[in-house]
Amino acid sequence: MGIIKFALRKPISILVLVAGLFFFGIKAVNSIKIDIFPQLDLPVIYLSHPYGGYTPAQMEAYFGKQYVNLLLYVSGVKSIETKNIQGLTLIKLTFYPGTNMAQAAAEVTAYAGRAQAIFPPGSQPPFILRFDASTLPVGELVLSSPIRSNNELMDMANVYVRAQFTSVPGLVSPAPFGGNVRTIVIKVDPELLRIHNLTADQVVAALDRNNQNTPAGNVRIGDINYLTPSNATEPTVKDFENIPLYVGQGVQNLYLKDVAKVEDGADITSSYALVNGKRSVYLPITKSAAASTWEVVQNLKKAIPRFQNNLPPDVKLSYEFDQSVYVINAVKSLMSEGAIGAILTGLMVLLFLGDVRGALIVILTIPTCIISGVLFLNLFGQTINIMTLSGLSLAIGILVDESTVTIENIHQHLDMGKPKSLAIWDACKEIAFPKLLILFCILSVFAPAFTMGGIPGSLFMPLSLAIAFSMITSYLMAQTFVPVMGNWLMKGHNKGKQSDEEEFKALHAEGRDKGWADKTAVVAEHRTKSGKVPLFDRFRARYLRFLDRFFPHRAIITIVYVVLTLLVSGFLLSRIGRDVLPRTNGSQFQVRLRNPDGTRLERTEMTMIRTLHILDSLVGHDNVEITSAFVGNHPSTFSTDPIYLFMSGPQDGVLQVALKEGYKVNLEDLKERFRRAMSETQPEVRVSFEPIELTDKILSQGSPTPVEIMISGKNHELNETEAFKIVDKLKGIPYMRDVQIGQSIRYPAININIDRVRAAQMGVDVNGIGRAMVPATSSSRFTDKNVWMDPKVGLGYLVQVEVPENQMTSIDDIKEIPLQSNQPRPVLGDVATITKGTLYGEADDIGAISELSVTANLHNTDQGTATRDVNKALQELGPTPRGISLEVRGLSPTLTDTLDSLQTGLIVAIVVIFLMLAANFQSFQVSMVVLFTVPAVILGSLLLLMAMGETLNLQSYMGIIMSVGVSISNSVLLITNAETLRMKNGDAVASAKEAAGLRIRPIIMTAVAMVVGMVPMASGLSEGGGQVAPLGRAVIGGLVASTFAALFILPLVFSWVQNKTSTKSVSLDPEDKESEHFIPSLYEHDAHQ
Fold first, then answer.
1. What transmembrane ranges does the database entry give (predicted)?
2. H helices of 416-553, where?
């Protein structure tokens, strides 16, 4: 009561407080960080270690398993997963929730440093990255040119673009995709080497002798200290051609140009990036963990013209696949939904009360509460993201409840003939405590957010805080701002005569605890004299007459209601689909194409180009905004790139497609047509759609598809057998698509079996043979590092010797690799047997145990159904062989954790509310009656969700939870009045009828206000509205059902349960007059004293 009295006595202070909230709230809106996701508790660290040329088996043995042995000492490690491909080991460490990730990262770095001692010579330290939501790219910065090669674009991207990213606060980017590092390439001709009896290793040795990074010293002559630089490093690329190959006097020398071509080129091409079908280079754009996604993206867009000035005119920069648009669309949706909700709510108040000024007061509270909510979110370190925006959007429907009920109650007291100021004071005072109790009930619904862990907790907490801050502000506004503005803006009801007012004053003087019938005596008399009965009063009378018919059968109706709602809700729960987040029909998708293992990069590129033609035929070229493709695997130089996009070999290609916004197409149908077209035109290519939106990428926690089954065991053959059995089983499920083994297990290889005895007899050894083979099959950079400095750029570039790929095209060419200097024999074929075979192109481990994965996508099916059917299919396969373990990953574990947490949270919330109501009413029976609307909420929400084709997911669950809170608030309003009346008159039936008649208008107004506030959200018509539409639909369905239950079931339940309950207080105090244990003699004795 004190806060209301303070507001009425110091109205200017209230206006100052509201103005201050509004002012600082606007500042908070402008300064708060805008992100896609809240800070997620993702306890994952990646370690990437390249070592060029090693086979997957070598990377696994020399790096992967060695790392595992040491990293097991790191505190809190839950699992260690390793991917080994040619030249790369990629390790994913997952930690238990609650692990100190800063300490874990430090320990990983320390143990990785210790591991260097046992690695092969020349090994570089690994790259270690803490993985969280900010690690994932939020867009791509594309460099394209009609005349320049990818390697030139790559160098420009590194030197002139990426180097300037420090000028954009919070911007982070890995190495560019699509090209390779600039390199001075010495391409030796095998035939010329044979003619001159040379080996490639001799050329490498000559290069090492003649291109040195010699430090410059100083010479002090007189008073001058001279630097002494030399041309130990070749001044220009052209000068490399004149490097002599022999050393000594009297030798007719040969020069590098006699056996090789020197090119200012790039390392061996291992990948291409294609933007709109043309070779390009792009930089994945990420941000630091503390930065705002929106600010980083906007600052980058502003900086693009500055970056462009440093590039040649033919090179164009563009920012594509912008992921920040999702959160901005959500902000726009919030603004539009808030405006529409406020207008509709104002119209509703106008309809029920006919009060334009009261409607204006309700409308004014909405932006103030929302802006204040943002202010407190900012103070508590939260950001504007899709979850806090969902909370604020949901709060719009609830915010009007507080002010609407207050305005309605003021009108009710004005109808009694009270003076305006007194009506406002009595009305606010009357509902102050019930509204506070309602606030606690709704806040209790979200209390489980503090007990949730992992991803569900990280997502639920910001949403809960957004609602809580807005609701607390709304309650305070209803108790302070609304009565102040009501006094200033609203008009009194001058319907009664002077004698009526005098009669009311006399009635009021007798006591303020009179019943509803007594308080409305003046109005009833006036209406009888005038002969006019308002429309709503006629509706109320009909409602009470209708309700009166059911009181004789209240017990049967209550039992039928409970049984029916529970049975139907249970049936609906067994039929409704389940997903982590709502399924939306976006305009972007990503697909991975897998050619047969070992397919050359050039062939994979042609596959991608043919795929782009197929896409054009399906949607029309003009309907494609942009396509971005990456084919092949990342150069070993860029150890961070595989963390962002993993590619297992040259046979892989990933295509990202963005369709134009105006093009309407069902994405699931388009994917299905794409699959059919690919199987008809390129049947050898395996297709697998992967998540492109950040929400899906984060929730899948690294899994490429919604369904992923891991098969682990020591025996590769048993793993493969089990994997093929699972593939066949999943293909039998009608809605499963893209079922395949995720690893390359039949990669073609040319096995070189060296006969060491034969080699020794011919004067060579394994070391010499290996050094001769390296330039012929890869590059000398892996065995002999040589660097040249470009004086124009001021950067150092590697120099490497290699045999051109077009000079090594058959087994015979391999056999003719020379092994010994100055002698035509032996060649490799003299000391080794060369045969074709296969090996693993990707060796994956869980810990030190080998594993394979089976991946699958879904077509028009929810994740819950897929999880159930996959588990059933695995059970039907029977027990796995000894030593083989199966684990279901993908979205299934996230779905289970999320729904389990929400279900537990809902149960906890109901229990907390029950206990709180019991403490308030001092009656377990009354608090149980209040909860009788909860079954109707669940039934109504599930019915509308199923009717709209929605699933049970994080957003719809939020709607159900919110509906429970609002339904209980309506129940509290009704039951509080009913119990107060029953304690006075002792008649539960009469009290239930009177309370229903008294509270029908605020209950209907509350329901209608929230429903109309949720209509814009539930429609899903705004930008990005599909993500939050299930939330609004669940609220509307639950609220409509609970309103009917509150008006038609709750009075019956109350009258039945409380019919024979004593009106005496449960107090045990013998001095309490209301207690059954009251002893009058004690009271009289105390009074006498």
1. 360-380, 431-451, 463-489, 555-573, 902-921, 928-948, 954-975, 1003-1022, 1034-1057
2. 420-445, 454-479, 481-489, 498-510, 516-519, 521-530, 535-548
For the chain, how many helices (H) and strands (E)?
A: 39, 26
Q: Which domains does the chain have, with CATH numbers?
A: 2-31+327-494+533-580+897-1057 (1.20.1640.10), 34-135 (3.30.70.1430), 182-268+748-839 (3.30.2090.10), 693-745+840-887 (3.30.70.1440)
CA–CA dist 1082, 1089 (Å, integer) = 11
Nearest to 889 by CA among 915, 863, 862, 913: 863
Q: What is the pTM of this model?
A: 0.83
φ and ψ at residue 406, rounded to 5 degrees: -65, -45
Closest by CA position to 334, among listed 345, 322, 326: 326
Euclidean distance between CA atoms 373 and 379, whole angstroms: 10
Cα angle 131-136-139, degrees, rounded to a multiple of 5: 160
Residue 1047's closest CA among 996, 1083, 1009? 996
**708-744: pLDDT as tens digits:** 999 999 999 999 999 999 999 999 999 999 999 999 9
Rounded Cα distance between 465 and 442, Å, is 12
Residue spans of alpha helices (H) in 32-87 = 56-59, 65-71
* Residue environment code for 852-867, b if the CB has 16+ CB neighbours within 10 A, otherwise e: bbbbbbbeebbbbbbb
Q: How far apart are CA 516 and CA 136, in angstroms?
A: 62
SS3 content of the chain, % helix, strand, coil (to 5): 55, 15, 25
Nearest alpha carbon to residue 661 among 628, 626, 629, 690: 626
pLDDT digits (tens, 9 = 90+) for 867-926: 999 999 999 998 988 889 999 988 888 888 888 888 887 888 888 888 888 888 888 888
Encode pLDDT of 784-836 as tens digits: 888 998 888 788 888 999 888 888 888 988 888 888 777 778 889 999 999 99
